[in-house]
Amino acid sequence: MASSSKQTLDIKLEFGGGTELLLAPPRNKKQRISLPARADPATLHKTLRQQPVVTMPADEGAANGVSSSSAKEAGPADMRFLVQWIRNHLIVEREELFVNTDGEGVRPGILVLINDADWELEGELDYELQDGDEVCFISTLHGG
Amino acid sequence: MPPRKCYRCSSRATLLLRKTLASCSECACKAVEVRSKPLMELARGAALLDRNGFLDEMRGRGSSSSETTGESSSQSQDSRGAVALAFSGGPSSRALLHIARRLLNPPPASSASSSSEKDKGKRKPVDVTRIHVIYVDDSALYPSDEGGARDLTEDVRAIVEEEGGAAAGLDFVPIKFEDLFQGQEEGGQLVLAAGLGEEAGSTSTSTSRIRATRSSSNDLSSPSPLTSLRRLFSTLSPHSTSPRSLQPATRTRLETLHHSLLQHLLRHTAAVLGCSTLLLGESATRSSIRLLSTLSTGGGHKWPVEGSEAIWVDEVLVLRPLRETGGKEIAYYVRERGLTCLEPRSLLGSGGSIGGLTRDFLLSLEAGVPSTVSTVGRTGGKLVLKEEGSVQSLGETMIPYASSQQGGGWDERVAGRSGVGQKGDRLMATVLTQTQRWTWRAGSANANANSTRVVLPCPLCGLPAQQEAGRWREKITMRRMGTRGEEAGTGKADTASTDARGETVELDEMLCYPCLSLFLDAATANKGDNAGLVLPGHVGRIVEERLCYERAEQPTMATNGGGSKSVQTTGEDEVGDQLDLDAAADGGRRQMAAAAPGVSANGAGGGEHTEGHSQGARDEESVAILRRHATRRLDRSAMEGKIGGYLLEDE
């Protein structure tokens, strides 16, 4: 389904260093998702663990009974929203190994790159995602 | 947010280091390589020393003729100048492999000119002849039901081939963790004589001895190495009926044992392969985590050797070229260079172990205070071994050899010998004078042996062991070490419980504190199941070397009344320990006297005046003992002899 620039963002995700082990089988290291363009908390419901990963439909907000007025009030999708979305839709186990204890950011020791650049240079959680962005999560905990 | 510029080339920055330093991709990768170069140069210097025979005596090759003439047969030259690299498949060792291959640039394995110094100007002069990439397969330790038992050796081999393989001078050396139990030592292996936590004939649970006996090398009932390895690790795990509260402690023990045995196996393999250097891919982050967790488990005494970025552990130079590079930089480097790594078996939680908790703690701190890792590392780098003189420069430990040759400093001795020009000569001189060496083997110590404090190794981890860690632990815990065959304070010479093969060996007197704690703490969870537990082969070998060393030192100790400066005797230790305890006790008594005036420590009346007078007398006596103790450490003749080794002969 072609993503609308107004309602969804086409985001490429990459997981490495062991973070892919937290995903549902087949634990694809590289995935493409359609993220809601607005950071509507109503869209952060958790999928059932038994269901396969599905692309978020453009009209999910309406399907979940969320009024269009609340969707308009939500800000643009940022990294904070993306991390929550990944936790709720892609991580199937041990989410505390991905998300920080405060529930917002990622766990210390996970390197995050946005378009091959350190997210600390882009504003970290406040970075507003653009259509076509590539976000990479690499765990540095294993050393070796 | 305006884009930040690279601090070096002013192009657009893509990596932020320590909140203040932004770098572009290429400069970040180059910085990792440049930071590794100084230690890689030491590896080259050690390889040059090896190729020119300077290390022969140290390693028992005995090729003094080749040293004096500078000539070596092509066959012997092929085995010299090799470097070992520990490779786990993770990002740090993967980055190290890439950097080492680029900076050391060994010749192809099939090159016919590998034995010649120069290939008619077509190649750079050779110093490092090959890199042995050592991979230790520990899949036997992972339960098959958790899906972690797959042998990843072939995956690692593919990665080494991707880096260039034999054509790039890389020699893949796969070994198994159970090889620790391979190669029956002469006289058989050590086996535990009784269950941990049990003393033969005693039902007391408050006493602990760790005794071992030698099994016959012809004993057909000896378990296989794999069985021995699994049993050793299962010994440290509690029974299934034990409470869950013991699991974090179990995980700590397993991690500690795994790390100690792995490091020893790597050093041993490097020595067996004839390598002058062992490269370890430990990052700054990993090193700082390990420093704190090692301190937490009582292993701080050996950190100056275990955690040093460049130190000779006996005959192998152990280098950590990535010690100044953080885990984040390494992960970025691996990704930018497109390097393939092994997938980890699992994404580790802390598991409650000391190592895991320390990792989470340090990384959390680093997120808020970016200089945490570097600060911890720098502070740890200032630690030294307690025994003064126990670590010396490589050249100082080779002085007995040098004194048999012509006089002069090391700069003169190595001049023109490297075969690769002045830079090579300087490299060799740098390694001889700037790198430190810890060794305990007789025959390789300083000629002025009386001025050298020898720290003997722990049989299990092979690193410096505190003297009588068990006795020290006994003083601070409820647990007693049980009866001994000696009277207190008479010194090791009277110890009847340590002896040659066929008789019982008191391991608890030789183990360092963390290794001792491994067994003693496991005793609370696993009693009586460990009789006949086979210990790794190197344990028996190190025990035998220690016993030989102590027997050789006994006449010296007897002549000097147990006060030999070359060996830290039990007598001196007990005096020192007793003074410490007295000082602590005196402090307590003073506090009690101050808190309750009129009541003396012995409960008699007439109080603090009497107590203060006797206290003052004890203090004076303690000071006098301390002064005598301190005076024995200074020996003018020994110092003169040491200085004399550097002086030119009078013409």
TrEMBL record, chain A:
The keyword tRNA processing applies. Residues 21-72 are annotated as: Disordered. CDD domains: Ubl_Urm1. Coiled coil: none annotated. There is a cross-link at residue 144 (Glycyl lysine isopeptide (Gly-Lys) (interchain with K-? in acceptor proteins)). Belongs to the URM1 family. HAMAP family: Urm1. Acts as a sulfur carrier required for 2-thiolation of mcm(5)S(2)U at tRNA wobble positions of cytosolic tRNA(Lys), tRNA(Glu) and tRNA(Gln). Serves as sulfur donor in tRNA 2-thiolation reaction by being thiocarboxylated (-COSH) at its C-terminus by the MOCS3 homolog UBA4. The sulfur is then transferred to tRNA to form 2-thiolation of mcm(5)S(2)U. Prior mcm(5) tRNA modification by the elongator complex is required for 2-thiolation. Also acts as a ubiquitin-like protein (UBL) that is covalently conjugated via an isopeptide bond to lysine residues of target proteins such as AHP1. This is Ubiquitin-related modifier 1. It comes from Jaminaea rosea. The gene is URM1.
Automatic annotation (TrEMBL), chain B:
Keywords: Cytoplasm, tRNA processing. Residues 57-81, 106-125, 198-225, 553-575, 589-622 are annotated as: Disordered. Residues 116-125, 608-621 have a biased composition (Basic and acidic residues). Pathway: tRNA modification; 5-methoxycarbonylmethyl-2-thiouridine-tRNA biosynthesis. GO terms for molecular function: nucleotidyltransferase activity; sulfurtransferase activity; tRNA binding. Its main location: cytoplasm. It is found in: Cytoplasm. GO terms for biological process: protein urmylation; tRNA wobble position uridine thiolation. Residues 61-81, 202-225, 589-602 have a biased composition (Low complexity). One of its GO terms (cellular component) is cytosol. InterPro entries: CTU2, Rossmann-like_a/b/a_fold. Pfam families: CTU2. Plays a central role in 2-thiolation of mcm(5)S(2)U at tRNA wobble positions of tRNA(Lys), tRNA(Glu) and tRNA(Gln). May act by forming a heterodimer with NCS6 that ligates sulfur from thiocarboxylated URM1 onto the uridine of tRNAs at wobble position. Prior mcm(5) tRNA modification by the elongator complex is required for 2-thiolation. May also be involved in protein urmylation. Belongs to the CTU2/NCS2 family. This is Cytoplasmic tRNA 2-thiolation protein 2. It comes from Jaminaea rosea.
